[in-house]
Amino acid sequence: MSYDLIVIGTGPGGYVCAIRASQLGLKVAVVEKRGTHGGTCLNVGCIPSKSLLHASELFEEAGHSFAAMGIGVSEPKLDLKAMLAFKQSGVDGNVKGVEFLLKKNKVDVHWGTGKILGAGKVEVTANDGAKQVLETKNIVIATGSDVAQLPGITIDEEKIVSSTGALTLSKVPGKLVVVGAGVIGLELGSVWRRLGAEVTVVEFLDRILPGMDGEVAKSFQRLLEKQGVAFKLGTKVTGVETKGKGLKVAVEPAAGGAAETLDADVVLVAIGRVAYTQGLGLAEAGVETDKRGRVVIDPHFKSNVDGIYAIGDVVAGPMLAHKAEDEGVAVAEILAGKAGHVNYGVIPAVVYTTPEVASVGKTEEELKAEGIAYKVGKFPFLANGRAKANAQTDGFVKVLADATTDKVLGAHIIGIEAGEMIHECAVLMEFGGSSEDLARTCHAHPTRSEAVKEAAMAVEKRAIHM
Fold this sequence. Notes:
By secondary structure, the chain is α/β, with parallel strands linked by helices. 32% of the residues lie in helices and 26% in strands. The strands form 5 sheets. Strands 1, 2, 3, 4, 5, 6 and 17 form a 7-stranded mixed β-sheet that branches. A 5-stranded parallel β-sheet has the order 8-15-9-10-11. Helix 1 (12-23) runs parallel beside helix 9 (321-335), helix 3 (46-64) packs antiparallel against helix 4 (80-104) and helix 3 (46-64) packs parallel to helix 6. The chain starts with a strand and ends in an 8-residue tail after the last helix.
């Protein structure tokens, strides 16, 4: 069987790449070993975690916030089995949606494990061991990433879990220790904290959310601590032992010092993810990878072997589904003779906790390191009419603009629905807009988005409501 393009992996990057290439007239096939489309994101990542975040937020709101609004309800009871079924229904709907889209766009699906035999040849091994070789003009590797392992600690997905196991716990743990204060650890830790777990987050660095704006991270940590999450920063986990029905987590200061032991019912290892390239035959095919196992690509997503490309978590850059999608579209357009491009300076990132944290562009730390003079505009939700009316005043908006040109270089938001509000900043930045442009744009009242406008006005110290 011969194709113009074969995409290995049908996560957000892979299936989007295949669909866009087919739209542009290419004969396309995908290879998927999981048995369902959507990759980690739809099956055991972004989508199911958002279902549990949403459900657990409503559970906590019903138990703690309704009375203040004049809504009298009996104490809510958790039906964890039903909540997990709600989560799975969201997964199933999204997965079936991708299957429909691939079929609609006439993309051939080959179920099994793909291996690159060289430029133009992909071997597919089905679950029953049957093999077939597909021929193609081009190959896109979109195999995503896997959970990073903590040395000396074995993940069993029951007591010591990755993000996958943390989405399917059969009961709420009395004590949950989260190893890693990144996005995944904080999101899933907040889910189980709301459902009743005592949560302690252990982080090797001296801060949470590495890579996010420092001021935002500090403020967010304080909010999480108010919610009941405990932090041990600058601390490393040296071992986990089973003691009876529980676990003993050995920790010590990262810089050296006295060790201590934490009790836990469940330990969530969330120290990051690594590119997944096992079994692809990259070395045999001569495809160059870096020290972290990622495929080395040029600005057009091409590896050092003609006809072999790579996108998403398997290449350098932020491990975000929407980054992979944009790369998938770009490489499909390049292969169809068009000018595909990704602006890596305008890729938003969101932490889907309560409140949310959203960011796009540069942080203050990055601007200082690059020697760029900038101005800061900030506006708190405490001064926003909609936020005050809804008693949702935690957080703020922060806009960073070039001191000379006023071009917006970064935007950072902590607050309810921050992940939705960040996109007006992303659009502005995509068109090279200034804080003045944002400040002069009329925003509906009363909305939380008015805080974005006020933060832009605050760049020139002319915010109205502060």
